[in-house]
């Protein structure tokens, strides 16, 4: 007897997604802007990625996201951005499956940011 499991919400394979990032510590006091390249680590995936667009920055005092777009952020900032990977990866939204919706960005062996997937 065989059982077939069919998921109501299958995992999507994407090359671009929207993420909320918390910037930890950039190398050499660099700024984080569109075009920033890093290595994305998400559960079993290790893939090159590029930040293609910064969408909104979180105001540290009110903890609300500002409506205007931002050009760059520095250490300690929280920002919504669009990330593009070179190959398709399977990843979940943080709101759907918390454990599979988290990732880190690393550069030269150092973690520069961690984040969660907000949408596709």
From TrEMBL:
Residues 16-117 form the GTP-eEF1A C-terminal domain. InterPro entries: GTP-eEF1A_C (IPR054696), TRAFAC_GTPase_members (IPR050100), Transl_elong_EF1A/Init_IF2_C (IPR009001). Keywords: GTP-binding, Nucleotide-binding. The keyword Flavoprotein does not apply. It comes from the Eukaryota. Gene3D superfamilies: Translation factors (2.40.30.10). GO terms for molecular function: GTP binding. This is GTP-eEF1A C-terminal domain-containing protein.
